[in-house]
Specification:
The chain is α/β, with parallel strands linked by helices. It is built from 13 helices and 13 strands. It binds ligand A2R.
């Protein structure tokens, strides 16, 4: 644990291991303290009574929030904030913010790139070239998969889901979706259950938040409903999928292929998925360009500055939308 100088400025604790560049604006505006993990046993009583804000680049649980007597705001990096106990924070009067919108288009680009790479086997085709097989054996085999004629289903038609749908419109694919609530004035077919959506499409893209309501929602039944030409893409959270069921469905031909950017226990990827040639796997790079990560970092700091300068959050999460600044 390293402290910056205590000059009377608000103390903000950076949790996780972001680069120095990523936290330079925090260091410029606050008394910044860094910890690798939000472990309450590592806090000195002095620090526990001094921290008023957290910049969360890693998990923040209830016990850590309880250990900080002056904590007012947890500004979390990323649109998904399942690693922060926002419900507990809300009950304690602690604001939680995330970084929506600024990553929407980047993640949608990644989702569509991953979909095409999965269907047309780009990773395997490149390996064919790099391994010299193009020269020694001839052209890469024709792919069974194609985008042509596919029907796409989006599980989670929110900001990112709608940005993906706009792209699929341009590719000429019909789009349907499932959310808990139908969106008014949105011109895509709505299905009130995930099962009904999966029955009606052959290409399922998951972009829902990771929480109890979505845990293992994509299971053996849903994958069976997609059928043998089925393709599953996950750009949301790995916890949304029953990974052993997915590996089995890929191994036995229940579906054709999967493209995954997220996993239940990152950075650990199940061996069963690593062993499958019809799984295209990315190391959670959905928003991972310098351009977009900078925008996310700026929004995180904007939330801290707005909170401590003006008593308001720019992008509060729904669980803490009722929280107001302490006088
Ligand atoms: O269910 P609704 O009407 O609240 O719609 C949200 C939907 N959603 C669900 N759909 C079905 N079953 C559920 N249990 C469920 N929970 C949430 O997911 C909403 O349309 C969508 C989430 O959209 P946004 O809140 O606009 O989030 P955004 O920016 O699109 O990001 C989605 C996720 C993040 O939470 C990260 O996990 C990942 O993408 O980066």
């Amino acid at each position: 644990m390293t402290n910056s100088s205590d000059d009377g400025r608000v103390t903000v604790l950076v949790v996780g291991q972001p680069s120095d560049h990523r936290v330079s604006r925090i260091a410029a505006n606050f008394d910044m303290v860094r910890v690798e993990e939000a472990d309450p046993t590592q806090l000195t009583p002095e620090l526990a009574g001094r921290v008023r804000g957290i910049a969360a680049f890693g998990a923040v649980g209830a016990a850590f929030i309880d250990a900080l007597s002056k904590i007012e705001i947890i500004a979390s990096f990323g649109v998904g904030y399942d690693s922060v106990d926002a419900a507990h924070a809300g009950r304690c009067g602690v604001m939680v913010t995330n970084t929506p919108d600024v990553l929407t288009e980047e993640v949608a680009d990644t989702a569509v790139g991953l979909l095409i790479a999965t269907v047309r086997e780009f990773s395997r085709a490149e390996a064919w070239l790099r391994d010299g097989l193009w020269a020694s054996r001839g052209p890469y085999p024709l792919t069974r998969g194609t985008l042509r004629g596919r029907r796409a289903g989006i599980f989670g038609m929110g900001r990112i889901g709608q940005a993906i749908a706009r792209r699929l419109d341009a590719f000429g694919l019909p789009v349907a979706y499932h959310n808990r609530r139908q969106i008014e004035d949105l011109d895509y077919t709505y299905h009130p259950t995930l099962d009904a959506l999966a029955q009606s499409v052959d290409t399922l893209i998951a972009v829902v938040p990771g929480n109890a309501s979505t845990a293992k929602a994509v299971n053996a039944e849903i994958l069976r409903a997609l059928g043998p030409a089925g393709v599953f893409v996950n750009i949301g959270r790995g916890t949304t999928v029953d990974e052993p069921a997915l590996a089995a469905a890929l191994a036995n031909g229940t579906i054709l292929a999967a493209g995954l950017d997220v996993f239940a226990d990152e950075p650990h990827v199940p061996q069963a998925l690593l062993d499958l040639p019809n799984a295209t796997l990315l190391p959670h790079v959905g928003s991972a360009s310098i351009h977009t990560r900078d925008a996310m970092g700026d929004l995180l700091v904007d939330n801290l500055l707005a909170w401590f300068d003006q008593g308001r959050a720019v992008t509060p999460v729904v669980e803490t939308a009722h929280v107001t600044a302490r006088g």
